[in-house]
Amino acid sequence: MGPRILITGATGFIGARVAATAASAKEPTHVRLLVRRPEDLPGELSSPGTETVRGDLRDPESLRRACAGTDVLIHCASAVGGDEELARAVNDEGTRALVDAAAAAGVTRIVSLSTASVHGRGPFRAAAPGTLPLAPGSATSRTRAAGDRHVMDAGGTVLRPHLVYGTGDRQLIPGLVRLLAALPGPLDGGTSLHSLIDVDSLAGALLGAALSPATEPGPYYVQHPDPVPVGELLAAGEELLGRRTGRTRGPAVDVTTARALFAGVPFALHHLDMLATDHWFADDRPWRELGRDPGPGFTAGFADHVPWYRGLLERS
């Protein structure tokens, strides 16, 4: 039997894929899932080989029970959006309590899912780990950066993707489609480059970091090696929008015009500014050292998820 793995956040977009990847690994492992509501687990994770324990990052005693008897922790749970008090209680104080419980239980490897947004807004071009200061611009990013520090102070590893897409994504691509739908024509986003990763490749990287003897403490960026031109990302959104509405679009809208149209809409302006700015992070260690595959590039990888996105958009 392989290592005993505890995974948090298994009811979420990325955590669910990590749990499924761990449960189906060739090497037999014992997988324990820490969840607040076991009834929310995807059906494929309710299997005899997977143990489920109820707990909450705001309940230290439940974390001590969950960590007991485990060897490896993969921490994917977080509070995104909402108020700062909740974000601090979950992402900062909750992660600290989880790390403390893991250390007390003798866990030998801690890997935590974070986000490149802890560095704030770019431009970032081929940015390598250790070259960027922390400059979080939101309560979510500030508290996740604080949680990262607890993990790294304990000798753990932090994985920081930028944009994650794939089956189960209800934020990135659906939000992009909503943004484009509010414009009279396709968005000309300029020439910016972005780091993206498919959710299954990210799940594999998290599991690889948890199990590989080559994993180093500290932060990794995790993304496909080839940055994606913003036009390629926008074209994917336009394709989904066209399939959803069947409408004929007007002429292309440049970023300056789009900013004027979205004046007074902070959410839209935030995402528009992100799209127009380079966010390219360069780190080949997840693929070079951990024995994992980054998968195909964005266009080929995205095609596999189009049916799921179409179904989601048709229901919304």
Shape estimate: globular
Strand order of the largest sheet: 3-2-1-4-5-7-12
Residues in helices, as a percent range: 40-55%
Task: Report the β-strand fraction as a percent range.
Answer: 15-25%
N-to-C series of helices and strands: EHEEHEHEEHEEHEEEHEEHEHHEHHH
Cα distance, first to last residue? 44 Å
Number of strands: 15
Task: Let me know the largest β-sheet.
Answer: 7 strands, parallel
CATH homologous superfamily assignment of the domain at 4-165 and 196-225 and 282-288:
NAD(P)-binding Rossmann-like Domain
Number of helices: 12
Which architecture name of the domain at 4-165 and 196-225 and 282-288 does CATH use? Answer: 3-Layer(aba) Sandwich
Structural class: alpha/beta
Radius of gyration: 20 Å
What CATH calls the topology of the domain at 4-165 and 196-225 and 282-288 is: Rossmann fold
Mean pLDDT: 93
Short description:
This protein has helices spanning 13-23, 60-67, 84-104, 139-153, 172-181, 199-211, 230-245, 255-261, 266-275, 285-288, 298-303, 306-315, and strands at residues 4-8, 30-35, 50-54, 72-75, 109-113, 124-127, 157-160, 163-165, 187-188, 193-194, 196-198, 218-221, 228-229, 253-254, 279-281. Helix 2 runs parallel beside helix 3. It has 316 residues and is an alpha/beta fold.
